[in-house]
């Protein structure tokens, strides 16, 4: 008896815990962290670029007769390595296992010397494939002309190309590749982030309501008026005096705050695939919608009339026969009431049996009639 009572108590406990968990999830289902809604101004990646050479190709490199800068790049490299190349011999050089490439990378914020970064390599000349190639040491420069990283290593193109004289098989793009961790940071970007007295949050999307909610959440957390909305894309936050020398700690305290973002009413239509996506704030005014389907089928069935066997006169005649089938579906007129949620809009349109492609036409007509209160984007 005691064991049965304990079992029942345990089941009741599990049910209560599950209910509380569901309520907690329901309350925070529409919320997002501030770090997912905005970024800190000044904390961003910096783009780097360089010109390099990929060697070790199996005859699929640049055709040097058509790419003059490939020869110039190779000659400059040889001269830096102490190899003398006579000027009269430059035009006679032919290299089919070397390709000139553009190397790009993103330098992350607060990167330190010795950190490894991923790099992308793309053919600049007329190379057929970079498969099996190795990138030689390439300086990566920023817009200011300074070298911030160097790149080197074997390429991974994620594909292949094989074939014979009559047929080739290729997978993925062969003239662009990637080297994971192939870049080495050599120069740091100076910053004084921990000494900031204020930070600026830049929202990923312009929205005054969301900006106001972010400011309210921060002020409630700090119990002050440190956060203020500058515009629909920017929130300024004053760093409390005790965090003036440790701004990073202050940012870690506020970036995890939960805020429910506000979204504009939008409807996305993709006519190529028949895809319709509607936000939760889409509303419609009272409107009547009629939808009828028209089906037309035209089929040609020519009949051939031939003369009898061994006849001296007569010729074959083709007699055209056309069959046309026209069917019109049952027209339906539905009064869609003023909706307050996306579910009512969808249920009302589904009640008249529309397909996604029909729904696109109906939504466009509703927008033209002024009954659809949402931004209509056709992609």
Detail the topology: elements first, then pairings.
Layout: H1 2-28, E1 32-33, H2 34-37, E2 38-40, E3 46-55, H3 68-80, E4 98-107, E5 116-123, E6 134-141, E7 147-154, E8 160-163, E9 168-171, E10 176-185, E11 198-203, H4 208-222, E12 227-231, E13 234-238, H5 247-254, E14 258-259, E15 266-270, E16 275-278, E17 283-284, E18 287-291, E19 294-300, E20 303-305, E21 317-319, E22 322-328, E23 332-336, H6 342-350, H7 356-368, E24 372-373, E25 375-378
Parallel strand pairs: 15-25
Antiparallel strand pairs: 1-14, 2-11, 3-4, 3-6, 4-5, 5-10, 6-7, 7-10, 8-9, 11-13, 12-13, 15-16, 17-24, 18-23, 19-22, 20-21
Structural account:
This protein is α+β, with helices and mostly antiparallel strands. The protein has 3 domains: 46-158 and 172-185, no CATH class; 192-259, Alpha-Beta Plaits (2-Layer Sandwich); 266-306 and 316-378, no CATH class. It contains 7 helices and 25 strands. The strands form 9 sheets. Strands 3-4-5-10-7-6 form a 6-stranded antiparallel β-barrel. Strands 2-11-13-12 form a 4-stranded antiparallel β-sheet. The two termini are 67 Å apart.
Termini gap: 67 Å
Note the main sheet.
6 strands, antiparallel, barrel
Low-confidence stretches: 1-29
Number of domains: 3
How large, in whole angstroms, is the Cα Rg?
34 Å
Provide a concise account of the structure shown.
The chain has 379 residues and is of the alpha+beta class. 23% of the residues lie in helices and 35% in strands. The chain folds into 3 domains: 46-158 and 172-185, no CATH class; 192-259, Alpha-Beta Plaits, CATH 3.30.70; 266-306 and 316-378, no CATH class.
